[in-house]
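Deliverable D4.2, example record:
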Amino acid sequence: MSSTAARTENHPAGAAASAADAASVSARELYFALSAAGPAAAELASARRYLDSQLRACAAMDIDLPDDIDDIAGWIERRGRFIGEQYQHYLQ
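Output generated by the structure prediction step:
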C-alpha cells in the first residue's frame, strides 16, 4: 500500500484533499490531509490552490482596516465609537 493510500485510509478526507479541484476541498479536508506525516505532492498542491482561492476571496472583500499598522490605534478608536453608536441606537 502506498503512503498516500495509507493516509487516505486513515483520514477519510485524504482522497478529496488530493483532488485536482481545490474549490471542492474544504479546510477540514485539507487539515486532515496535511496533518499526515509527509503529505504527498498532490496534497500540497491542493492546499496551495485552496490557499490561493481563499486569498483571492479576501482580496475582493471591502475591509476598512488601515494599510499602515501605525494607523491601527486611530482605526480602533473610530470603530469603537461607531459600534457604540450602533449599540445605543439598538437600545432605543
